[in-house]
Design brief:
6-stranded mixed sheet; 6-stranded parallel sheet; single chain; alpha/beta
């Protein structure tokens, strides 16, 4: 075996050095002969002895040296193998398919397998994939579990070769083994989870209709009603080792550990329904809103998150809980209809604040949502009238005119009473923006679906007036925001603002018609989301010259639209005995999305239908129009599909899918809501 070993490299050079030195010695002896023959003769025997010794070492002793090296390498390899075998860190070798070829003792103990077993990594760790076994560059880290323990797998490629040429060939052919390191993370993750569970969560509880509920009960029993509500809230938070503190008569602040948040989510904040059971003769049930903030960098940030969450809960109509976990927001509840506020104090305050802002600006831009409806148009006209009354230059931004808006818009276009630049596209409006420009956004509070989103970044002073419930996407840079989900329409809100913002504003009949039409369309002829203030706003517009007959004539359907609506209703499918799902044919229609929305309203007239959804495919996008009367919150339904809206009127847009796929997604959301109890 030793004879077969070829000496090469530095060892070969080391053994050859005596021969090389012999040549130098012979040359030195010859040079000495030229100087002194006697001295040269004396040196010859020593030179011969040195050469003989060098030849003997090179010819015979290198075998012994190689034998010693072989013995050393064998012992070294054995020591190295023992170090790997006894290494505390679990270590193993596997082939490219994940089959274990060798493992040390720690690895065997970790995965509880016998020595010599050839198990596959994919069978031991089910969440490991074949893609993880292809670590082309560097090390692949995979977090997995086995039994009751959590592990981190470090997978590293190694190439086995006996020479540089073989190593190059291995790299080219990608023939390799996998070095597997296993790190037990069980205790570390347990400690991290314990730290997370002990974090403080801040929360706020607001009673939505405290004053109204107290007024509906006898005066002598009001303190009892307050005490019962207070007891339920304190008992609910105390059951989770939390602390609750009364801030005001109808506001509470509480803190609890983060580990209880999952319990709250699983029971879907049962206090929302539990507090409604308090009844000592009060005519209306008490509802509350909850805002929770967690996973902030500081306790103060958690409190800020809770304030944002409670504002969103109130902005969405109350009777719900909003959980703000960093940038993620989750909603729970929101089944009941928010009660209309009888007082107009808020409308008056917002109107005065809006006037103060308008007086500091020279130009007003008014913008609604994309593919604007008549409510959006009517509200824009109302704001235009306010700006004109305050001697401000105003423009309405509208990019696409639908068939529902065109009849009303034609009354303003080419009308000598109105300027030629009354209506502008988004691009035209952008050219007019300067430091003295103010933007009023109506009938929408989501920046992504406004008619010209770029204006939101260009204008510094922004006012929002909307009646849709807020979602996680809001216009964050608004100076003034007036969002009232209980209002029937944006036109109703603008009609109230008109009465308070300035004295003696005269509304022309065409403007009154536009605003009145917005209320009629959004309330479906005063049958949906209608309150006392809705009729008061309509009465005000009637006094200003709105004509009911003229409005009705403007919004009659043409034959093509009517047939499309009838076809939608005829082909509608009833799902789960309570949900009608239809498809509106878009071919030949100028505004198929409007027809789809009208068909969704018509489907609610069928007995037993709790909610209707109509899908309309237009320009490669599937538009969903969802409607309900009172039993289903279609806003929550549409939010799960990326949309939003109002409790009884909502919509969404789906891309990159067929109508059938969209229907399946709608059905899946309905099934999910039924399972969670969001639909009674």
């Amino acid at each position: 075996m030793k004879e077969n070993i070829v000496v090469k490299g530095q060892l070969k050079g080391y053994l050859s050095w005596p021969i090389v030195l012999s040549v130098f010695l012979v040359c030195g002896n010859a040079a000495l002969f030229l100087v002194s023959r006697v001295g040269a003769l004396v040196m010859i025997p020593f030179t011969v002895c040195y050469i003989g010794t060098a030849v003997w070492i090179y010819m015979y002793s290198h075998k012994r040296i190689l034998g010693g090296l072989v013995e050393f390498s064998s012992e070294y390899a054995w020591i190295q193998k023992q170090l790997l075998t006894d290494m505390v860190i679990p270590y193993a070798l596997a082939d490219e398919d994940g089959r274990l070829l060798w493992m040390n003792r720690s690895f065997q103990e970790a995965i509880q397998t016998e020595k010599g077993s050839r198990k596959s990594l994919l069978s031991i760790f089910p969440n490991l994939t074949r893609n993880d076994l292809v670590p082309d560059d560097g090390t692949v880290l995979v977090h997995t579990s086995y039994g009751n323990k959590k592990f981190r797998l470090d997978i590293q490629p190694i190439y086995v070769s006996s020479s540089e040429e073989e190593e190059k060939e291995a790299l080219i052919s990608r023939q390799k083994l996998l070095a597997i390191y296993l790190f037990d993370e069980t205790e570390m993750l347990r400690c991290l989870q314990e730290i997370t569970d002990e974090k403080m969560v801040a929360g706020l509880i607001y009673l939505d209709n405290y004053d109204e509920a107290l007024e509906s009960v006898e005066e002598v029993r009001r303190s009892l009603l307050t005490a019962l509500i207070d007891r339920k809230i304190n008992k609910y938070i105390s059951a989770m080792d939390g602390v609750v503190k009364t801030l005001e008569k109808d506001k509470y602040f509480f803190i609890l550990k983060q580990k209880y948040v999952q319990q709250l989510q699983e029971e879907r904040f049962s206090i929302l329904e539990d507090v409604k059971t308090v009844n000592i003769g009060n005519e209306m049930a008490v509802t509350l809103s909850i805002g929770i903030g967690m996973n902030g960098d500081t306790y103060a940030q958690n409190y800020d998150y809770a304030r944002v969450a409670i504002d969103m809960a109130l902005g969405r109509g109350g009777d719900q809980a909003v959980l703000k976990d960093g940038s993620r927001i989750q909603y729970y509840g929101g089944k009941s209809q928010q009660l209309e506020k009888a007082t107009r104090v808020k409308a008056r305050v917002k109107a005065h604040a809006m006037r103060e802002l308008m007086e500091t600006k020279d130009r007003l831009l008014i913008m609604g949502h994309r593919i604007g409806d008549i409510d959006c148009f009517g509200a824009s006209i109302g704001i235009f009238r306010i700006a004109t009354a305050l001697n401000k230059k105003a423009h309405i931004v509208i990019n696409e005119v639908t068939t529902s808006v065109k009849p009303m818009m034609d009354r303003f276009v080419d009308n000598p009473e109105y300027p030629d630049d009354m209506f502008l596209s988004g691009a035209q409006a952008a050219e007019l923006v300067d430091a003295n420009t103010m933007l009023v956004v109506v009938d929408v509070n989501r920046p992504s679906i406004t008619d010209a989103p770029e204006l939101l970044k260009m204008v510094k002073t922004i006012v929002v007036l909307d009646h849709h419930r807020q979602s996680s996407e809001i216009i964050s840079n608004a100076v003034l925001s007036y969002v009232e989900p209980y209002a029937s329409s944006a036109c109703e809100m603008v009609a109230e603002v008109l009465q308070y913002i300035a004295d003696g504003i005269k509304i022309k009949s065409a403007e009154a018609d536009a605003m009145y039409a917005g209320i009629v369309i959004d309330t479906n002829n005063f049958t949906n989301q209608t309150g006392v203030r809705t009729f008061e706003a309509a009465a005000y517009l009637r006094r200003c010259g709105a004509d009911v007959t003229r409005v009705r004539k403007l919004f009659r359907d043409n034959m093509v639209d009517y047939k499309a609506k009838a076809a939608t209703i005829a082909s509608a499918e009833v799902y789960r005995d309570a949900f009608s799902i239809g498809e509106c044919p878009a071919e030949g229609l100028e505004s198929p999305t409007v027809v789809g929305a009208q068909a969704a309203n018509e489907l609610l007239e069928i007995k037993g239908i709790k909610a209707s959804v109509v899908l309309t495919e237009h320009h490669g996008v599937i538009y969903l129009s969802a409607r309900s009367i009172d039993e289903v919150n279609v806003q929550v339904m549409m939010e799960q599909l990326g949309g939003g809206g109002h409790r009884t009127i909502a919509g969404a847009q789906l891309k990159d899918m067929t109508v059938e796929e969209a229907k399946r997604r709608v059905k899946a959301v309905i099934d999910q809501m039924l399972e969670k109890g969001d639909i009674s």
